[in-house]
Design goal:
Helix content is about 40%, strand content about 15%. It is an alpha/beta fold and about 400 residues long. The protein has a seven-stranded mixed β-sheet with strand order 4-10-9-8-7-5-6, sandwiched between helices. A three-stranded antiparallel β-sheet has the order 11-12-14, with helices on one face.
Length: about 400
């Protein structure tokens, strides 16, 4: 079946249990699906835009209320929608990073943080991780000291990942932020894997900024995301235009420079808004999500030779697993080679693992029912047993 021309219908989430790490938290709610059909046209959000002509003032639909609700949801003073977490990083980097400024990220940071700093000509330095793949307050303070000695400047900004994309580990961000604030450096908390998935309280964590991803963790279409800030930092990153042009003497009202005036103008924003009530509710069921995740992780652990690379017990549903000494040994002698694994999973209705991967791979159980988690857990064990691996 085709959508149009050569474009296939996509039904991975209807036809299978998807465990793709980056996709599961972004899947749309039925409400978002309806909203995006109605708001598919370009600039559709602008129907009822009136003075002072800015996205966060639109009352129909209630974008103004949504922006305030978003800030409250993250326990921050002010929030704006952005086209992806990466554009949130960029707005903050644009505000604080000058050419040559040292900026800290972590050894587990996402490439988009690097690019946001690189585009400003900032000097990127990484906070090292422990052997358990965690970032600590001590390592953070140590790196600030090192970099200050190296460059003669304190870092102008620090990015900390709340849960990193490589291991899905939950870092002690409250303590890290406390350490950073001893040096008076603003902290951007990267909540791409947490905001919209679990409760995130920016006030308690004392974050200067929280960035979230709509299409990764808030059941919203891509590209969407949120940039939230404290009132003080918000006045810096959400500063308004002050330009008057020379020939026509035009001024541009209260357009926000880093937001390029307006950001999300149709499906993305309205999709995000339509899913938001369910997102607010689902973060309260995080313990059930963790229980499902641990069920699957325990099944994998029971397969001899399989090692969980993420912290254990799990504090997030994204997990990195090493099957070099289990499924990869099977792959060596299997006629389908490494493809046997993804192909066996497919037979059991499970999708989202990179075809051919049998060494180190990641999966995410977010959004499963208990029955689905049980099915995934027993499927891993069955595939192991069918291929001669011993299961405890
Ligand atoms: C996915 C991801 C991003 C990028 O998010 P976008 O919304 O696609 O820009 C940034 N950081 C981390 C840790 C991620 O996992």
């Amino acid at each position: 079946m085709k959508c149009a021309g050569p474009i296939d219908v996509r039904d991975v989430d209807e036809s299978s249990i998807n465990i793709d790490p980056i996709q599961v938290g972004g899947r749309l709610t039925p409400e978002a699906m309806k909203a995006i059909i109605a708001y598919g046209d370009g600039y559709s959000i602008c129907d009822n835009c009136r003075k002072p002509f800015r996205l966060d003032y639109i009352k129909t639909p209630p974008v103004d209320v949504f922006m305030r609700d978003l800030a409250a949801f993250l326990h921050m003073d002010v929030a704006r929608v952005v086209p992806g977490a990466r554009r949130g990083f960029q707005a903050v980097a644009d505000t604080y990073v000058e050419r040559g400024d040292p900026v800290l990220i972590t050894a587990l940071s996402h490439y988009t943080e690097v690019l946001a700093i690189e585009s400003r000509g900032g000097l990127i330095r990484e906070i090292p991780k422990t052997t358990e793949n965690l970032i600590t307050p001590d390592a953070t303070a140590g790196k600030i000291e090192d970099v200050t000695r190296e460059t003669g400047k304190t870092p102008s900004l620090i990015f900390i990942d709340h849960v990193d994309y490589q291991y899905g580990n939950l870092h002690p961000v409250r303590e890290i932020i406390k350490a950073v604030h001893q040096y008076d450096i603003p902290v951007l908390l990267n909540g791409a894997y947490t905001a919209g998935i679990m409760e995130v309280d920016g006030k308690d964590l004392e974050a200067d900024f929280i960035v979230g991803s709509g299409h990764k963790s808030m059941a919203a279409p891509a590209p969407s995301g949120v940039l939230a800030a404290t009132a003080e930092r918000g006045s810096e990153v959400f500063r308004t235009t002050s330009v008057k042009t020379d020939v026509t003497s035009r001024t541009f009202g209260i357009k926000e420079v880093e937001m390029m005036g307006c950001t999300l103008m149709g499906v993305t924003l309205v999709g995000m808004m339509a899913s938001f009530p369910r997102v607010q509710e689902r973060v309260r069921r995080w313990d059930q999500e963790l229980a499902n995740g641990n069920l699957v992780v325990d099944a994998l652990k029971s397969i001899q030779g399989t090692e969980i690379r993420s912290e254990y017990p799990r504090k997030h549903t994204l997990t990195r697993v090493d099957t070099t000494k289990s499924f990869d040994i099977v792959a060596k002698n299997h006629k389908k080679r490494g493809y046997f694994f993804s192909s066996a999973l497919k037979t059991k209705g499970i999708a989202g693992i990179i075809p051919g991967a049998t060494q180190v791979w990641k999966f995410n159980t977010y959004g499963m029912t208990r029955a689905q988690a049980e099915h995934v857990a027993s499927s891993f064990k069955e595939i192991a047993a069918e291929n001669g691996l011993s299961v405890l």
